[in-house]
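S.,

Sequence below, as promised.
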Amino acid sequence: MSQGGVVPQVPAAEVPADAYLLDVREPDEWVAGHVPGTVQMYVTDVPHRASEIPHDAPVAVHCASGYRAGIAASLLEQAGLRRIIHVNGEYSDWDRLHLAESRV
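The prediction came back faster than expected:
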């Protein structure tokens, strides 16, 4: 979890089971395939919608490559969340782990 301004980066395989999953990809990317149970919130919407995210659970943020997730993790930290996890790696990692469902 985020400590002292450092947001930990973990691969998809190491995301805690109790984490709130936040997908910060574009809506059409999410529709094409996503991890069941994720909440889709495009990265630019994060500052305005951070209050919708639970502050008492670890929040695992992911995107297609890790870039937008890193930005979103910083925005969440600025909004006061402290239990943030930056899921590094590509969205396809979730698929390789059989944790994603595709609609394409």
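The chain has one domain: 9-102.

Coffee later?
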